[in-house]
Amino acid sequence: MAILEVKKLGSEVLRSKAQKVPKVTKRIVKLTKDMLETMYATDGVGLAAPQIGENLRVIVVDPGDGPLALINPEIIQAQGSEVDVEGCLSLPGVLGYVERFSDLIVEYLDERGKPQRIEASGLLARILQHEIDHLDGILFIDKASGISGLAELQAKLGLAEDQQ
Ligand code: CO
Predict the structure, then answer these.
(1) 55-88: per-residue pLDDT in tens?
(2) What's the rounded Cα separation, in Å, for the pair 160 and 13?
(3) What's the total number of domains in the chain?
(4) Active site (catalytic) residues
(5) Does the residue 96 lie in any domain?
């Protein structure tokens, strides 16, 4: 396993639409393991493949009760709404309040390529929506209100104020 570099705001891959995984190969399984290791090493609760520079529809999450890797995740049902604070490993120091669905059903492939379905609510539902957004090039700051720390991060990364 390996700890990978997490891409930061301004990185083009974070704004790209990720490709569907055609087949769950050994390489994909290794990718999920490396992503989990990277997520734990950086104290994250979720990570999407574009964040480590892989333009693939793969995410890993752990809301606190164990790791889960989802390949080609798709939200097939969503309801309710909840506002809470979010951050992102690609935007260190930035926080904002995001309205998300409170309850979801997500379909995905597991590491064996088997179709799975998960019902999620609360924190897990929030993490899944945040990570699935990454696969479509969407960052939480696109949807957040009351954002703090963004100007500081842009200055630190040498980005222009409108570079997101
Ligand atoms: Co994120």
Answers:
(1) 999 999 999 999 999 999 999 999 999 999 999 9
(2) 18
(3) 1
(4) 131
(5) yes
> Does the pTM of the predicted model rise above 0.85?
yes
Contact present, 117 and 77 (Cβ < 8 Å): no
Centre of ligand 1 to C-alpha 89, Å, is 6
**Residue 74 sits in a domain of what CATH number?**
3.90.45.10
**Whose CA is closest to 67, among 93, 46, 96?**
46
Residue pair 78/101 in contact by the 8 Å Cβ criterion: yes
Query: 132 lies in a domain?
Result: yes
Distance (angstroms) between ligand 1 centre and the Cα of 117 equals 22
At 119-128, the pLDDT tens digits run 999 999 999 9
- What is the extent of the structural domain holding 35? 12-157
Contact in structure between 119 and 68 (CB atoms under 8 Å): no
Ligand 1 centroid – CA 138 distance (Å)? 9
Whether residue 5 is contained in a domain is answered as no
CA of 8 relative to ligand 1 center, distance in Å = 10
Task: Give CA–CA dist 148/151, Å, rounded.
Answer: 8
Neighbouring residues of the ion ligand 1, judged by CB less than 5 Å:
88
Residue 163 resides in a domain? no
